[in-house]
Amino acid sequence: MAILVIVATVLLCxxxxxxxPTWNGEIPGHRNQYEILAESILNGHINLDYGDMDPKLLExxxxxxxxxxxxxGVSYHWDHAFxxxxxxxxxxxxxxxxxxxxxxVITGTSLTTYHATQVFTALFILGIFALFLLLSKKFFSSLSxxxxxxxxxxxxxxxxxxxxxxxxxxxxxxxxxxCLEVWSLFFFANAxxxxxxxxxxxxxxxxxxxxxxxxxxxxxxxxxANILAIPMFLCYIKGKKFNRKLLKQIxxxxxPYIIIGTLLMVYNYARFENPFEFGQSYQLTVAxxxxxxxxxxxxxxxxxxxxxxxxxxxxxLQDSFPYFSDQSVFLNFPICIIAYFFLLQKDSLxxxxxxxLIGFMVALVLLPGIITISQILMAxxxxxxxxxDIYWLMGLFSYFSFGLLGETLxxxxxxxxxxxxxxxxxxxxxxxxxxxxxxxxxxxxNTYPQYLEMFEKVIWFGFR
Length: 464
Known about the structure:
Oligomer: single chain
Helix content: 55-70%
Distance between the termini: 35 Å
Shape: globular
Radius of gyration: 23 Å
Strand order of the largest sheet: 1-2
Number of strands: 2
Strand content: under 5%
Number of helices: 21
Order of helices and strands: HHHHEEHHHHHHHHHHHHHHHHH
């Protein structure tokens, strides 16, 4: 049954990625940058050389101003980084080395970008099921098998529904980031909560650091989830005597962060002469972002509005299917609100303290806000795909909350509680399907609107 549920979840979240020609490679546009960068690296350079540079772009005093580009009639490649007369890809380079280059070298052909997203999404889903199983064995032994499977499927679906909608390029970076982060957390959890000997803990710790460090080379906002490693590290060293041996173990575990971080800084410097610049400031896109991230751009009003938009904003219902638009996190997925309410129960908080999980849960509660603030400061506005960075964290939080409450219930309530969680999970998965059907950004239903009527008839059993 577990294998069937996992396979079904993977297939339902990957196969529909091929449906829209805008995202499946039929109309590549600017969305094939990973493929082009892989070819560039094989040819010995890291810029994207299209051979069609507009001289007017080179002459501009500020090429990052979209109004000026339009006024001068400049021809340019959309959503690329542009610096010192060269085009670069500002999306993280790690997916190129993990998938695109090996595929190109082994097969002799380029990997279509959405296929990479399918791979990362499938591995992410496997990571969710693996992490939740580990947590169940360690902390939530009372959670029924059906509740574990349904909650894992629901957390997977709510994390990736937008990725399924628009898989290429943007979501390639995001899917790679959340994939590496969930497996980083899985290995850290094994190191701190599950390993039976020191050598095993160090091995898992190194793997956790490696995957967490690589996430910075996919999408930096997603990689802020590495903050969760701090309370886990403090839990691991608590009660241990600080000596040379422990210091050596710590250095071994953090070594991947140092190595990967250094390589990413060298890559950034080679492109932008700044080890901390990922290309965000040099985008040719909807706004001039050359000054974003500076202290002068810090605006409390913008941060407040962005947080409200991401978590509690509301849009009115519509007359046509699917009747609503994409909204904020809590309104898209009420399961998260219920999880917060359950965690505040006195017995749940007591169990949280007994398991020494308070620091971890505080970090987990704060992280979605921290990631959102980083997005607000570094982008002209928040988009739907920005919430993919935090959906999986909300799913993880919900699993902890439901699991903790389940441990405090009397036996006569546990069966009903498991049924309730399964029902809530199925409702969440159905909500993901409805969100996927909203016409947006050249997705499947935006390209083929005739299918909306068919979906509506199926859902209403032909009565509408």
